[in-house]
Amino acid sequence: MDSFADLGFARVDTSREARQGAPEAIVAEGKTPAEIRAIAQALLDAEASSVLVTRADAEARAALREVAPDAQEDERARLAWVARDVPEARGTVAIVSGGTSDLPVVREAQVRAELLGTNVVVHVDAGVAGLHRLEPALPDLKRADCVVVVAGWDAALASVVGGLVGAPVIAVPTSTGYGATFGGVSALLAMITSCAAGVAVVNIDDGFGAGTIAARIARQSA
Amino acid sequence: MDSFADLGFARVDTSREARQGAPEAIVAEGKTPAEIRAIAQALLDAEASSVLVTRADAEARAALREVAPDAQEDERARLAWVARDVPEARGTVAIVSGGTSDLPVVREAQVRAELLGTNVVVHVDAGVAGLHRLEPALPDLKRADCVVVVAGWDAALASVVGGLVGAPVIAVPTSTGYGATFGGVSALLAMITSCAAGVAVVNIDDGFGAGTIAARIARQSA
Amino acid sequence: MDSFADLGFARVDTSREARQGAPEAIVAEGKTPAEIRAIAQALLDAEASSVLVTRADAEARAALREVAPDAQEDERARLAWVARDVPEARGTVAIVSGGTSDLPVVREAQVRAELLGTNVVVHVDAGVAGLHRLEPALPDLKRADCVVVVAGWDAALASVVGGLVGAPVIAVPTSTGYGATFGGVSALLAMITSCAAGVAVVNIDDGFGAGTIAARIARQSA
Amino acid sequence: MDSFADLGFARVDTSREARQGAPEAIVAEGKTPAEIRAIAQALLDAEASSVLVTRADAEARAALREVAPDAQEDERARLAWVARDVPEARGTVAIVSGGTSDLPVVREAQVRAELLGTNVVVHVDAGVAGLHRLEPALPDLKRADCVVVVAGWDAALASVVGGLVGAPVIAVPTSTGYGATFGGVSALLAMITSCAAGVAVVNIDDGFGAGTIAARIARQSA
Amino acid sequence: MDSFADLGFARVDTSREARQGAPEAIVAEGKTPAEIRAIAQALLDAEASSVLVTRADAEARAALREVAPDAQEDERARLAWVARDVPEARGTVAIVSGGTSDLPVVREAQVRAELLGTNVVVHVDAGVAGLHRLEPALPDLKRADCVVVVAGWDAALASVVGGLVGAPVIAVPTSTGYGATFGGVSALLAMITSCAAGVAVVNIDDGFGAGTIAARIARQSA
Amino acid sequence: MDSFADLGFARVDTSREARQGAPEAIVAEGKTPAEIRAIAQALLDAEASSVLVTRADAEARAALREVAPDAQEDERARLAWVARDVPEARGTVAIVSGGTSDLPVVREAQVRAELLGTNVVVHVDAGVAGLHRLEPALPDLKRADCVVVVAGWDAALASVVGGLVGAPVIAVPTSTGYGATFGGVSALLAMITSCAAGVAVVNIDDGFGAGTIAARIARQSA
Amino acid sequence: MDSFADLGFARVDTSREARQGAPEAIVAEGKTPAEIRAIAQALLDAEASSVLVTRADAEARAALREVAPDAQEDERARLAWVARDVPEARGTVAIVSGGTSDLPVVREAQVRAELLGTNVVVHVDAGVAGLHRLEPALPDLKRADCVVVVAGWDAALASVVGGLVGAPVIAVPTSTGYGATFGGVSALLAMITSCAAGVAVVNIDDGFGAGTIAARIARQSA
Amino acid sequence: MDSFADLGFARVDTSREARQGAPEAIVAEGKTPAEIRAIAQALLDAEASSVLVTRADAEARAALREVAPDAQEDERARLAWVARDVPEARGTVAIVSGGTSDLPVVREAQVRAELLGTNVVVHVDAGVAGLHRLEPALPDLKRADCVVVVAGWDAALASVVGGLVGAPVIAVPTSTGYGATFGGVSALLAMITSCAAGVAVVNIDDGFGAGTIAARIARQSA
Ligand SMILES: Nc1ncnc2c1ncn2[C@@H]1O[C@H](COP(=O)(O)O)[C@@H](O)[C@H]1O
Ligand SMILES: Nc1ncnc2c1ncn2[C@@H]1O[C@H](COP(=O)(O)O)[C@@H](O)[C@H]1O
Ligand SMILES: Nc1ncnc2c1ncn2[C@@H]1O[C@H](COP(=O)(O)O)[C@@H](O)[C@H]1O
Ligand SMILES: Nc1ncnc2c1ncn2[C@@H]1O[C@H](COP(=O)(O)O)[C@@H](O)[C@H]1O
Ligand SMILES: [Mg+2]
Ligand SMILES: [Mg+2]
Ligand SMILES: [Mg+2]
Ligand SMILES: [Mg+2]
Ligand SMILES: [Mg+2]
Ligand SMILES: [Mg+2]
Ligand SMILES: [Mg+2]
Ligand SMILES: [Mg+2]
């Protein structure tokens, strides 16, 4: 029943969407434009509801446009995507970030979640250094089916939010910061040892993963 | 609106359950039996639906029994708990572990999730070294509202399960193993870099955290 | 001008108090009771305003009592001390901790700061998992000349406090927690990468160091 | 009472100065020139006493100049700032560095401290490899209300200074050096485990943080 | 009996092939084109069965062509090689990779193994996120004398294959991925702690090492 | 075709031997004696050719004896095993260790390899600090079908052997040593970065894994 | 020419002294008393000038006494040794430590250096927190042929001494301290990145190694 | 007595040579050409016997030439130096490296040692992968007053040499290699845990430090 398209250099998992409700996506790094093109084509041929290319430089994004003229992109977030048969939106994901520099990761999570068919509301730069900036976001956070917290540095925002809301919290450490932030490691450690129960963590800068699990949670909660 | 019981050595967050749907729990390590007793009493006085003491040695478990004769315990998992007004079960969490030695963490997740009011089904020792052992678990995993994967060593089970099911996957790295397992660090790293999208990770050996988020997901999905 | 008492196995820095305003203290670990006795005696002979023994087991604490019958002790915090000519208290240090298990470190900071001649006010268990528990502490924190934040796990409390008060903040990571807390490393990293400016950090579990610098700041601010 | 300017991509904490006595600053890395411009404008609109942009390349520094023609800059330290209503200087901060290469971090600490309204005296390249070079700095260090030690490599200077002065010492590890300096990690570890009590540490290369806490200490000590 | 060619800057181990059945190869990084040329010439003079230059940029690959016009190359895998007296192929190595981005490492292993005289069969992109993609590879894997698993991220494929085949498994962690993959460290740790017995690991991205040991195993098994 | 015995707390992989030529073994740590007994019984019932219990204290070893009176044990190596239908020995594995303290790991590798049906020859304490002690071992090492190098500290022996023999080399880092050996991590790193090609590495102290892969290589080479 | 005594479990390098001027020594950890006895006997039979057992608990020290009634011991330093034909002392080694707790390592270095035939002068507890305590040691340090600095915590003493003396400096990091000392790692890193040129480092707590190289330097300098 | 030249941005330690027998050197990284020029001039004015600039790109090397037309340079080793009053050579240092890529570090050690007044003999590329290549170097190594071993990867050469020679061994880990070499960390760890006693280690790639201590040892041994 499970199938894939064998391109030689890639076995495109065309049955992932049927199996798991979310189509395979393409990490552009480490792939040639030709490979991206072929993989995207294979996914489109298999009627993927959407195709998302992440970590995509200009060349990689152009590759998608060649096989899908209706492709959209976000340069700063290094994303290109094409929405074909996106499921009707169900449930709501609220994304909140600690700072402005977390924006690319916020966007990656947002685009993925929307492509999987969920509503997304975003609050950027509500970090703990000025906690009152979180307040206007609280109604959205408390109302959401899943909350995604995107933060670098000490990532304290994840614990603060994790102590306030009743929804599942997905935390995304980001590589923003310098020195002992160690490219997001300190944020990851703070998030995974959060004193607030009910917080689970994805890889550093992995907006894609966060968007995937958050959309699943939100959709099945609606 | 938010309140706490001030015991001097502890500010027991008696409003956590109202605020977040899950009562505060007690980590026994670092607390005296008298402190555990007092905190448990404060939670019971505030009509917590349940009180759970984790990382509890015999003395700590006895402390709970003194204030709650109806307390139950699991020695191997170092747990004591009392179920008072547990919400009616909604939704299902499936827990699967890689090995037998993961049992204490499995139990911690299970007890917490059940106390929060969800159904739990458990499959122990279905690790990747003998992948066919996972097959009988698959129907349960595919049917669950949330899947919890508990694994030490290389934690490859998280990725395998994460590539098969459509539900959100919460991964719990365990400290089982020796040498370069580094007390669960290698498992944590493998899980957080899982090639399967939709997997989020909690702290090493943190069955409690996994049970908390899993129950939230399951209950709101039902 | 600078002097020391040469005991062969130790060169007791008897001029430290004159030079730096805070007497030498004794880390008991790695020293025999006889050595502790002799060092304490040398400090008392040199008219130290106080003698503090940290990381002291029962034997080490007894050693101090033998040379100073007026010695006090705190078993849980593994402290013994004798106050002889403590300067009149000037300024105020506010200490706040994330959890109950941080108590020994809180106490070490408090005793040291008081022995150096400052007022200390303490708030235990005001962690971020239930942020409303911090509110009653805020007036004290905002009024203090120096704030000491003691926290383990993700240590998010340091950033929250660091974003609210105008006084210098000294953060003490503690080794409470398990798994990826790595004995306080995650707390240390979160504190040192705090998104709140004006937070400086001492060693893991180093209540002594925090008490020393906090007392200096408070006294010179009064 | 607390307020912020909502720019969509940023919630500028315009009440930070009123709340904590030090205005919000801007880390340029991760922000576009347009964002820097807008944030700086919002701070100026809110009558910040100064605006400081750190980690700023030429483009980022130009962005500040566009909204504040009176902006100053330090290319090597990657700083741009505008001083508008800087408080009258109170107290003194002494900054001492181990080597010449630490200069950019020294400058960042100095500029921030001066903008917050304190006097700063600087001694560069007084490292332990030639300890006699520290002697001419000692009177300034002993007279200061707060001493900032900036050092890379082994950072031994922090402990030496920490054993000589009575003022609070803020240590800034720098990323100077190669090999096992690990980008400042070895310096950070040496500073945070300093055998001299009363030393507290900020992030690697974080002149900004050091300047902030040092100015607070110095001002309230005067 | 053992000999070498002394070039001053290099002592080319011309007897390695006689001693160990595999000729010395050349890591291009850290060597000048002139050095590569001279070393390659020395190996050819000593009648090496093949000369392989790894980690070779365009200049380094050109260097080999200058002394061996019959040289071949693979730009993406940064390889250049010349096959002179390659032993007749004996035994079979099966290489399987988790993703498309692992291709350069796959190629390095393949070329080295073939130059040592063994048959190589390759399956790319059969990772665990879509396990059914492994199935068509299984007959080849079960039939091989040695299986090489090349994978980045969580490297779960190594354990899955290690639990299915009876042949020795050589695992090669790759540096594909971002965030907490730490340049292949997480993959290395997962592979070396594999719950499947009979898996041994080489350095991150070390296709060369894997090809060497795999060819030895395959040839002596035939 | 693949089967397992479901004991509730364990799914004993009774088909592993048929599938992979080596029976499942039992890590005693983390299991109760009753569990060990039941798992061993299940393996014996399924006609495993041998049952091996590793990391076994006295209680765990006694558990095996209860179900298999013919069990043997090695206290220092913490092993218990029963040999029932061990295949006739084919091929030869040579094990060489750097020091005397590596003996438990040497023994674990030896017992496992012998139980899988291969000849084993052992040379203990031939480390690089006195390289001439390796010489008498060389004929055995050069003659073997697979060489296992067991070493702690700097593990230099692996590279020396790896530069001398033509057979595949399996390296086992051990946790012998103190200080910067970091429980075997330094040995692991040295082995995995060996300048000798054709060396592959298993987990720290993992004699079991080394014995498994070495026996496979030796048997198929004979 | 090079020889060894083959005891089966050990190949005692009886020619090390002739080859390298320093007899093989015995690390007791990981060896049985019987093994220690036999190795010591083999060394004595081969007319070692001395036999030194390090990391020796009471049992291990007793083992040496059984074969050498003239053995001496130091319980705190966990040493036992027998001096038989110690070369006449040549040259001088000066050992200086940062604190009292470094004593066991100081002693290990001292005993080893004396057994190799050199004069040793010791200064304990002259750390940087009270730098004036170093002054009385300076004449000895400046006069020595080799200086050994033993220090834990931040190990700043190594750099201070390294900037003052003209002799080669051997630095020994110790595991004294807690928290971010990481068992001596921070000291090791500070020493190996010392801003003072001419400092070389041995393993954490490795008084033995320091004593060996220091004695070699001192003897050949006399 | 001790003096320095105060340049504002640098306090040039002009008395280092009188105090310690080796003139201060200049790390070019982090300094402007103008600063390098001024520091070099200050050293020449103070009659340094030599001036050495390390980690020097073309600009930095040109800076030295401007103040010292007789300056020499080594581009690959990124060195510039001027020899003015180099002491007559005494004693011999033997440098041996594992590979060709270690050449820059070898050269840095050699130049520094020669400038301090000692004879240097060099053997490049004698690594353990082909141990017979070490043999021709052995007479030089055994004859030397100090042996410097320069090696990357597993750095096994340090232990092999450390087990053969009677002279003090200074080991220099290099950053050659990829993957788990971690920029020289694995080499550092292997060297510092060497099973051969009498090996001491300097920083990764620190030919300068090795040359300094080796020259000291050699000169005082002659
Ligand atoms: N096993 C556990 N792991 C992690 N967190 C826990 C665990 N058990 C309880 N908790 C949480 O830890 C907090 C208790 O912290 P404390 O104030 O130290 O008792 C509570 O808020 C619980 O939600
Ligand atoms: N390559 C090198 N590695 C380590 N230290 C060096 C090197 N070159 C010079 N030095 C030392 O580093 C110090 C220079 O530090 P700085 O003040 O930054 O110039 C001098 O005291 C030199 O002894
Ligand atoms: N890609 C590679 N990875 C690891 N080792 C390699 C690689 N290519 C060649 N080698 C080995 O590295 C050694 C070359 O080291 P060098 O003396 O620096 O040229 C040779 O003995 C090769 O066997
Ligand atoms: N930004 C991302 N981070 C993590 N995983 C991703 C990302 N984008 C795509 N993926 C997943 O990575 C896999 C792509 O692997 P590959 O075979 O290398 O293309 C897909 O199955 C995606 O689900
Ligand atoms: Mg912001
Ligand atoms: Mg099992
Ligand atoms: Mg609490
Ligand atoms: Mg300098
Ligand atoms: Mg793929
Ligand atoms: Mg031995
Ligand atoms: Mg002391
Ligand atoms: Mg070479």
UniProtKB/TrEMBL annotation, chains A, B, C, D, E, F, G, H:
GO terms for molecular function: hydrolase activity. Residues 91-222 form the PurE domain. GO terms for biological process: 'de novo' IMP biosynthetic process. Pfam families: AIRC. InterPro entries: P2CMN_synthase_LarB (IPR039476), PurE_dom (IPR000031). This is PurE domain-containing protein. It comes from Solirubrobacter pauli.
